[in-house]
Write a structure and sequence with these properties.
164 residues; 2 domains; nine-stranded antiparallel β-sheet; four-stranded antiparallel β-sheet; 5% helix; 54% strand
Length: 164
């Protein structure tokens, strides 16, 4: 499963060997590659030609032409969606808003305090989960605004731990 963002609207896409579902609805179409970057789609009585104009692999963004209109698609795979759910960004832009608990657990140690400047990869806290200590690292550079948890506090998955 992955997400496609088209004109600021996210659509969930699930592809199996037999079908493609967009927002839980199966899409039935015939397609034929016309050229390396052109495809011809037929759905019912509707016929559409689409062309891939450009790809930015770093941001997972596609510029496509469908008929006479162009559109920008941003793709998010399951890993991007998981990082986003955890409050982390996969795009590496370094702007942080918060760090969320990746799993339920117990706060064993806080390595930062409000006002501290952190760099990408710095350990910010230790979370015990399933009898294992997990070092939670900063996914980017930032300044700690607020610590939302305390030592020995139990936390739930996706709970905000630190604000930037």
């Amino acid at each position: 499963m992955f997400s496609v963002i088209l004109q600021n609207t996210a659509h969930s896409v699930e592809k199996t060997e037999d079908s493609i579902k967009v927002n839980q609805q199966e899409i039935v179409w015939d397609l034929k590659w016309v050229e390396d970057r052109k495809i011809h789609l037929v759905r019912g009585t509707e016929s559409i030609e689409a062309e891939l104009l450009s790809i930015d692999r770093a941001t997972k963004t596609l510029l496509i032409r469908i008929g006479h209109k162009t559109a920008t698609l941003t793709l998010k795979d399951r890993f991007d969606l998981l990082l986003e759910k955890m409050g982390m960004s996969a795009n590496g832009n370094g702007s942080l808003k918060d760090i969320r608990a990746p799993m339920p657990g117990l706060i064993l140690d806080l390595k930062v305090k409000p006002g501290d400047e952190v760099k990408k990869g710095d350990v910010v806290l230790i979370l015990e989960a399933m009898k294992m200590e997990n070092s939670i690292k900063s996914p980017g550079d930032g300044v700690v605004k607020e610590i939302k948890v305390s030592l020995k506090q139990s936390v739930e998955k996706n709970q905000v731990l630190i604000l930037f």
